[in-house]
Amino acid sequence: GKWKIKRTKQDESKASYCGKFTKDDGKIDFENETAEKIYRKFQAFYLWPWIYFYKNWKLFKLTDIDISDPGVD
Predict the structure, then answer these.
(1) What is the per-residue DSSP string for 15-69?
(2) Residue 72 has pLDDT above 70, yes or no
(3) Closest Cα partner for 54 from 38, 33, 30, 35?
């Protein structure tokens, strides 16, 4: 069947302004960001600018991540 999209007017009282993203926004700070925040950052920046970190002067881009409970197999 055909997809039907219903338009819904935005609730302006719940809207906020978002500035322009930069490549630096995708950098992960493992010491100050929780796993949940890193996962949300991944969802937001999946296509650009990716999420990434440096280790031993090497760049690592994360292309797929999952959150799991370490107490569960």
Answers:
(1) --------GGGGB--TTT--HHHHHHHHHHSTTTT-EEEEETTEEEEES------
(2) no
(3) 30
